[in-house]
Design goal:
It is a single chain. It is built from nine helices and 20 strands. By secondary structure, it is α+β, with helices and mostly antiparallel strands. The longest helix has 24 residues. It is elongated.
């Protein structure tokens, strides 16, 4: 349905006659084009009598109750007699408000499925008069075109209506993101249209027949905290009601994608690696699309899932490998060396450790581990004359990857001999004096 009589249809309808029709033909679907003056109800009723017509697409103005064609002529109304010619179809026009009442009403009357906007459908364009052969000719309109007609192209390739709809909506959001750097208004309306474009009816409806397939899959996830990346391994098999499916499977995980050829038994495997900065929970959206092999009658299949990978923290081990002490009067100097590793013995470099000398007021120093995980500090502290040992504590507080660890060791050092000698000398002098005094008595 391609009316051509005012601004909206001047902009959109040429693509139905050009690019859309051509792409459908490439996929083996021969559209019946109702162009301009031919986009009227009598022509539409005549066209859908063809038992091979299984879908209605196009553009036109509308409201809750009606979808219109050329010069606002009603094409489908709430309350129309819905014959078997309608009931073979999926009906999905680009039109304002028809998703609010008309499209769900059609499904209630027996139409296979429908898609419609529950509010106004907005779009932007650079110009009014379009050639219509290539969406790239209009740098704004292309975002709507590329998104909207995913639905019909996927149906033409053998996907179910539900699968085609989900792929279309996903493409709307993808196109909105692409449009953000070009025109914010366009990005807004592409996203707005996606939010309000609703599906009704049988999500298993297909335009073409073939051998149905299923995707069996398993997802294995692993977080490598030390090297800061996640790995996602997806393996599985495409099976069919009869025979072994052939062809390729497309796998997308977030912003990465791969196309993998099926093995002789229909199996496949693919690995995805994602680097990250923060060790936090991360969600990965996974899409698997078996593209089908219509030459062998194998129909395509879509599967979607998501996985979450939780933070993983690596246990650590901190050691005090050597303590050298020396004493100068009351001041004791501690030269402390240690090492920080993970539980497998791998050195952990460029991390801050804290070293304390205790037994009395704590004295603290910090140090960075070198490329071998080694750290060293020098701490000076005063001790009483006769104290000859102290507790040394080394602590790593951990970070977003590595766990906390702590250790302690006793350091020994000599007493303050200088003071002891002075005291001993004084005692000797006093004792001598006492002896002299006693001898004189």
């Amino acid at each position: 349905m391609a009316p051509y009589y005012e601004i909206a249809t001047y902009i959109w309808s040429p693509y139905l006659r050009g690019w859309v029709s051509r792409e459908l033909e490439k996929r083996g679907i021969m559209p019946i084009l109702l162009w301009g003056p031919g986009a009227v109800k009598t022509k539409y009723i005549e066209a859908i009598k063809d038992k091979d017509v299984k879908g209605t697409l196009g553009v036109g103005h509308g409201n809750n109750d009606v979808f219109t064609g050329q010069n606002y002529e009603p094409i489908i109304n709430v309350g129309d007699k819905i014959t078997d010619d309608y009931k073979r179809q999926c009906i999905a026009p680009v039109s304002c408000l028809v998703g609010k009442k008309l499209m769900p009403w059609l499904v209630e009357q027996g139409v296979q499925c429908s898609v419609g906007e529950v509010t106004e459908y907005w779009f932007t364009a650079e110009k009014i008069i379009q050639n219509g052969d290539d969406p790239e000719e209009d740098k704004l309109l292309k975002y709507y075109m590329y998104a909207e007609y995913v639905f019909w192209y996927r149906l033409a390739e053998g996907f179910t209506a539900g699968e085609a709809y989900r792929m279309m909506i996903r493409e709307y959001y993808r196109q909105a993101k692409l449009a953000e750097s070009i025109d914010e208004e366009t990005a807004y309306y592409v996203r707005y249209d996606a939010d309000n474009r609703k599906f009704f009816g049988d999500d298993k409806f297909r335009l073409i027949e073939g051998i149905e397939t299923q995707i069996q899959y398993n997802v294995i996830t692993q977080r490598n905290a030390q090297d800061r990346f996640d790995s996602i391994i997806i393996n599985g098999k495409v099976i069919a009601q009869s025979g072994v499916p052939t062809g390729k499977i497309y796998i997308e995980v977030n912003d990465q994608n791969k196309e993998v050829s099926l093995n002789n038994d229909g199996s496949f495997t693919a690995t995805f690696i994602f680097d990250w900065d923060k060790n936090v929970e991360k969600t990965y959206q996974i899409t698997l699309i078996y593209k089908g092999d219509l030459s062998n009658k194998f129909l395509p299949k879509l599967e979607e899932t998501e996985v979450k990978i939780e933070p993983t923290y690596i246990p650590t081990k901190i050691e005090i490998t050597d303590i050298k002490t020396s004493r100068d009067a009351s001041v004791v100097t501690f030269n402390i060396t240690g090492k920080l590793t993970d539980v497998k013995g791998n050195q952990i470099k460029n991390k801050t450790v804290e070293v304390y000398v205790g037994d009395g007021k704590l004295y603290e120093e910090t140090a960075k581990t070198d490329d071998n995980g080694v750290f060293s500090v020098t701490i000076e502290k005063s001790y009483p004359v006769l104290q000859t040992k102290a507790t040394v504590i080394a602590r790593f507080n951990g970070d977003d990857v590595y766990q906390h660890s702590e250790t302690s060791k006793i350091a020994k050092f000599p007493p303050n001999w200088e003071v002891i000698r002075t005291i001993a000398t004084a005692i000797t002098i006093v004792a001598t004096a006492i002896a002299i005094i006693l001898s004189l008595l």
